[in-house]
């Protein structure tokens, strides 16, 4: 058990180091990105396992310049800025494994918590490809003020897989930004302020078998912005319920989206296609909230929307076109 009140904790830069079965206590959970962190993780094939890290002002774990990092079966709590930040800053790396961890920021002040619990980032120049993120539990405050206070953000990390995680609270459950060929499946997202799952400027993605419920706004958001945009994303067998806003939102430069076997209940709209086009809906079941609700809303869309099979019930409008 290590108590580290003043400075950095463990620095891991050499290949193949393993830190396990420890408690690291920093004694300060005020938010300071330049403050102390529990572990610096930058070596190739380094592992942090069965470690409880809490009360640090910056990060529990910070790094990202090592290949195949593994963080497994750890608990992070009361971290001032973000529990875990892995950013590739100098060269492309091969993403590692983040599994079986608990990211517990639920007791932090929602008015000031600034960042996601977990951040994995690369860039166009230095990609951080192939992360495996699974069996983690994310707990964030409800309705945090800062939009960036998400459960998990993946950026610049193509070919990653995200599955069997549970996300509660925060602004967004799982945010996938500028990532191609990312699979997000069998996750559970509850009580987010903005949406359960977001795909932004990400192509050829697979979002399937997710359970999303009790959202303040949206279930799933797919949003593209030129020149990148979102193309050829598939949403399959997702269950979205108790959304106060929209079940699935397709926004702006989003094309050629395939949505199948999804079950959606939403207060305002089941599917909102806003300035997007080229959408196929196959065997989906939509349930509305009576007066004021719409099953399929086309907002300044170029069209090319195909609907086959499925059902629509409980809506004032099954189809509404606005141009």
Question: What does this 3D model show about the protein?
Answer:
The chain is mostly beta strands. 0% of the residues lie in helices and 56% in strands. It has no helices and 37 strands. It has a 35-stranded parallel sheet that branches. It has a two-stranded parallel sheet with strand order 10-14. The chain is elongated and about 60 Å long. The N and C termini lie far apart (63 Å). The model has no long low-confidence stretch (mean pLDDT 95).
Q: What characteristics describe this protein?
A:
35-stranded parallel beta sheet, 323 residues, 0% helix, 56% strand
In short:
This protein is an all-beta fold. It has strands at residues 2-3, 10-12, 18-25, 37-41, 47-56, 59-63, 70-72, 75-79, 82-87, 93-94, 97-99, 102-104, 118-121, 128-129, 132-134, 137-139, 152-155, 161-163, 166-168, 172-177, 183-185, 188-190, 195-200, 206-208, 211-213, 218-224, 230-231, 234-236, 239-243, 246-252, 254-260, 263-266, 269-274, 277-282, 285-299, 303-308, 311-322. 0% of the residues lie in helices and 56% in strands.
Unreliable sequence segments: none
The beta-strand count equals 37
Shape call = elongated
> Tally the helices: what do you get?
0
Task: Summarize the SSE layout with pairings.
Layout: E1 2-3, E2 10-12, E3 18-25, E4 37-41, E5 47-56, E6 59-63, E7 70-72, E8 75-79, E9 82-87, E10 93-94, E11 97-99, E12 102-104, E13 118-121, E14 128-129, E15 132-134, E16 137-139, E17 152-155, E18 161-163, E19 166-168, E20 172-177, E21 183-185, E22 188-190, E23 195-200, E24 206-208, E25 211-213, E26 218-224, E27 230-231, E28 234-236, E29 239-243, E30 246-252, E31 254-260, E32 263-266, E33 269-274, E34 277-282, E35 285-299, E36 303-308, E37 311-322
């Amino acid at each position: 058990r290590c108590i580290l009140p003043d400075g950095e904790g463990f620095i891991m830069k050499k290949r193949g180091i393993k830190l396990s079965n420890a408690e690291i206590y920093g004694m300060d959970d005020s938010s300071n990105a330049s403050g102390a962190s529990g572990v610096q993780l930058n070596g190739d094939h380094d592992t942090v396992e069965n470690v409880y890290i809490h009360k640090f002002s910056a990060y529990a774990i910070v790094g990202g310049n090592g290949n195949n990092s593994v963080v497994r079966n750890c608990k992070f709590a009361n971290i001032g800025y973000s529990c875990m930040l892995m950013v590739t800053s100098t060269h492309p790396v091969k993403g590692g494994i983040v599994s079986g961890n608990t990211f517990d920021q639920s007791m932090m002040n929602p008015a000031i918590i600034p960042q996601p619990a977990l951040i994995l980032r690369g860039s166009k120049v230095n990609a951080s490809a192939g992360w495996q993120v699974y069996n983690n539990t994310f707990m964030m405050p409800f309705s945090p003020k800062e939009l960036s206070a998400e459960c998990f953000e993946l950026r610049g990390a193509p070919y990653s897989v995200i599955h069997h995680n549970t996300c509660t609270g925060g602004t967004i459950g799982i945010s996938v930004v500028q990532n191609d060929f990312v699979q997000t499946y069998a996750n559970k997202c509850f009580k987010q302020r903005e949406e359960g799952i977001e795909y932004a400027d990400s192509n050829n993605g697979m979002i399937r078998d997710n359970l999303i419920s009790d959202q303040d706004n949206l279930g799933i958001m797919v949003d593209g912005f030129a020149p990148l945009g979102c193309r050829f994303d598939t949403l399959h067998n997702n269950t979205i319920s108790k959304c106060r806003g929209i079940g699935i939102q397709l926004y702006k430069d989003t094309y050629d989206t395939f949505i199948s076997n999804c079950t959606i209940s939403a207060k305002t709209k089941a599917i909102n296609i806003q300035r997007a086009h080229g959408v196929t809906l196959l065997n989906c079941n939509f349930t509305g909230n009576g007066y004021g609700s719409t099953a399929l809303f086309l907002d300044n869309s170029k069209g090319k929307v195909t609907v086959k099979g499925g059902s629509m019930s409980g809506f004032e409008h099954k189809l509404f076109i606005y141009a």
